[in-house]
Amino acid sequence: MMNRQMRLFHGLGWALLLAYDFVGIYGQHLPNQGVLLVLQFTFRLSMMSIFYYCFLVLFPRYLRKTRIPQLLLGLALAPVVFTATRYALEQVLLPLLFGFSNYTGEVDLLAYFRDNAERGLPMMMVAAAAWGVQDAFLREKQRETQQLQQEKTQAELAFLKTQINPHFLYNTLNYLYAQAYLVSEPLAEATLRLSDLMRYMLHESPDGKVELRREVEYLENFLALHRLRFEDNFFVTFETPAGLNGQRVASLLLIPFVENALKHGVVNRAEQPVAIRLTLPAPTRLRFEVHNYISQNQKDHTTGIGLANIRRRLELLYPGRHQLRVQQAAGVYHTTLDLEL
Question: Does 166 reside within a domain?
């Protein structure tokens, strides 16, 4: 069976072929152009019959399953399909509808079959090539789907390993927050924000998406923790729009860009701040930009999420609905992500 995209592709191909016939006949100023156009149309219909007999019936049923005897028998019958279709259209239907046929006078059926069998062979080869390309495409897509399912299963297993006892972790952090508050308010605030970060990271939604507002809150908590760490020597700006109302985005999608900017960028110079900006050019379109100067003496050697992994995740989650642009020049790194939510 063909999906909608494939049907459109086939329809466009046949339409172009018919348009070529139309231009060819009327462009040569031949006599009886209307008759020639009708006959050419019935010929194309006959070509369609042998093409789809091979493409939709013969090859999927026998070639894919390597049933060679049945395939050979079907190939032998293919010219019969073409000849019978053309005979029914041109020698039976056209005389009834328009009063003319392609062959006039007595028709030698053996010669008619031989002539049309030769005309049908090229279309059989075209059908074989088209089916081969489609089959290879479908197999590759199936392989990617299986790989995606395998990756999802592995991710779920990895996620389950983290679910030792989240309530225990939350309760412990709340206890530490209460104790830290008696000693140091900044330490208590850091503990509370860490608790919020962990709660968000361990949250699992059925479709893997969260409200954009919550993703922004996570980024704000993440930056706030770093600000506590660097005290007054942390220069990062984060601009967000006011109208975050119901938009949903894949969980933890934006944090790698921020993490990499803090890891590789300059964060302790007021004249060279890290600039993070989130905008909504349209209600269902998101743009996320991160601009940072590249640090010459990187101190944080922890492993972040590489650009290749980020691209891979975007391809899996937003196929055909994202654009990621990375620019690096004169010691400045600028990343722009556009998403169709």
Answer: no
At 185 the pLDDT is: 72
Domain stop point among 130, 159, 188: 159
Dihedral-angle region of residue 238 (phi above 0 means left; psi in -120 to 50 means alpha; beta otherwise):
beta
Rg (CA), the chain: 33
What is the domain range of residue 53?
A: 4-159
Angle at 312 between CA 311 and CA 316, to 5 degrees: 115
Predicted local confidence at residue 157, as pLDDT: 57
At residue 339, the pLDDT reads 95
Which of 159, 194, 218 terminates a domain? The answer is 159
In this prediction, residue 300 carries a pLDDT of: 46
Low-confidence ranges of the chain (pLDDT < 70): 1-2, 30, 105, 155-175, 177, 179, 181-182, 199, 201-206, 297-305
Coil, strand or helix at 244 = coil
Rounded to whole angstroms, the maximal C-alpha distance in the chain is 109
State how far the Cα of 236 lies from the Cα of 262, in Å rounded to an integer: 9
For the chain, the domain total comes to 2
Q: Are residues 20 and 138 in the same domain?
A: yes
Paired tokens of 32:
């009886």
Q: Could you tell me if 35 and 132 lie in one domain? A: yes
